[in-house]
Design brief:
globular; 0% helix; mainly beta; Neuraminidase; 419 residues; four-stranded antiparallel beta sheet; disordered N terminus
């Protein structure tokens, strides 16, 4: 078992579709398995970085080969993903969510197709494969999609931010993964990101929206039966583009965290109770923060902020110091123009890892946790053109989280299975 960073040497030649044994003196033997259509071929000596390996044993079966070559910045012998399998979607898809919408215990894909003015549903056909999308018309330029049961019927509904129509659409689930036509609710100009969570402790999920051109966030309280009250708007900084809602100060009331793209900061609006919020407190981050996630990454039971800094080519981590205050960001280099970030344990070590969609590099970066809220260098996986949104869910029921990415420039969805 190896628990520290190390480098090993691969000697001579080994090819694809073959189990290979790598040695280094005074270090335990490490096994790495390469599958058919793999691009890993070494001639003579090659250096391979091994980062935070807990344990790896070669499997006895070979996954089905896929279609896109994988490139890595750092090669890890644990928690790797297979090459993406792609599924056609709409034109310039912009946001993706993954949840079981037809009650068959298999996560389905929901995508906002920005230039098609619709949302697409790709039902899980089993084993991590998906049916062709079924589309539902929404407003103009849907830019964000969220899924939650908003009418207490135990069926997840779709909430979409229609950035070109200045409204929020709610599509109620009719059962079996089909949906009613949207009902719309007006918000401020250019709603770009939506989150759904109960903010006033009435057991009904509410809608929170970042309005890019209005410099506001909107809160639409759930009036019951999937109907929402008119918005209450709160002023934030320039060009709010991404919003998350999590209790950051341990008072059992969800707070709003917003990425302010034009001000290079993150705003925190603490919940005062009954679904109202204080004015924001801001924390400086990198250039053009475009996506925010809020998860405890250092196991201290306090949620931390993870931000994609589009103009800085970094992700920033702001650790929670308690009472809803945060340390200055620590940054980690990723690809060109990281545009979407999520956090999940992808290698089963009970540590939260960062997954980023690198828009300008046409890849997804995975930064494995090094412990205590620090992260290793990214490993990259090639996807299609302009990945713009990333989600993580176990789509093939093997208890390992997989990556789902919306490739805006290629009008497709990529699914990278974890093996």
């Amino acid at each position: 078992m190896i628990k520290v960073n190390d480098t090993i040497s691969a000697l001579n030649y080994f090819s694809t579709n073959q189990t290979c044994q790598l040695f280094r003196s005074n270090i335990s033997t490490i096994y790495i398995e390469f599958y058919s259509n793999s691009t890993f071929v070494f001639i003579n000596q090659s250096s391979i970085s091994i980062l935070n390996i807990l344990e790896y044993q070669p499997s006895t079966s070979s996954p089905t080969p896929t279609t896109t070559a994988t490139s890595t910045t750092t090669t890890s012998a644990h928690s790797l993903f297979l090459n993406q399998t792609t599924y056609p979607a709409g034109v310039m898809l912009w946001s993706v969510a993954v949840i079981d919408v037809n009650n068959d215990n298999k996560p389905d894909i929901i995508v906002a197709n920005y230039n098609s003015n619709n949302v697409g549903i790709l039902l899980n056909a089993g084993n991590g494969t998906f049916s062709a999308q079924t589309t539902y018309s929404v407003g103009t330029n849907p830019s964000s999609v969220a899924v939650a049961d908003v009418n207490s019927d135990n069926k997840p509904d779709i909430i979409v931010a229609n950035s070109g129509s200045n409204n929020i659409g709610v599509l109620l689930n009719t059962g079996n993964g089909t949906f009613h036509a949207q009902t719309t609710y007006s918000v401020d100009t250019d709603p770009w990101s939506a989150s759904v969570i109960d903010v006033n402790s009435d057991n009904k999920p509410d809608i929170i929206v970042a309005n890019y051109d209005s410099n506001t966030v909107s809160v639409l309280l759930n009036a019951g039966s999937g109907i929402f009250n008119a918005q209450t708007a709160y002023l934030v900084s320039y060009y709010p583009i991404s919003v998350a809602v999590v209790d950051v100060n341990n008072d059992n009331k969800p707070d709003i965290i917003v990425a302010n793209y034009g001000s290079n900061n993150v705003g925190i609006l603490l919940n005062t109770g009954s679904g109202t919020f204080n004015a924001q407190t801001t924390y400086s981050v990198g250039t053009n923060p475009v996506s925010v996630a809020v998860v405890d990454v250092n196991n201290d039971d306090k949620p931390d902020i993870i931000i994609a800094n589009y103009g800085s080519n970094t992700v920033g981590v702001l650790l929670n110091t308690g009472s809803g205050t945060f340390n200055a960001q620590t940054t980690y280099s990723v690809g060109i123009n990281p545009i979407s970030v999520t956090v999940a344990d992808v290698n089963s070590d009970n540590e939260s890892d960062i997954i980023a969609a690198n828009y300008g590099s046409n890849n997804v970066g995975v930064l494995l946790s090094a412990g205590n809220g620090t992260f290793n260098a990214q490993t990259t996986y090639s996807v299609s053109s302009n990945p713009v949104s990333v989600a993580v869910a176990d789509v093939n029921n093997d208890s390992k989280p997989d990556i789902i990415v919306a490739n805006s420039g290629s009008n497709n969805l990529g699914v990278l299975l974890n093996y």
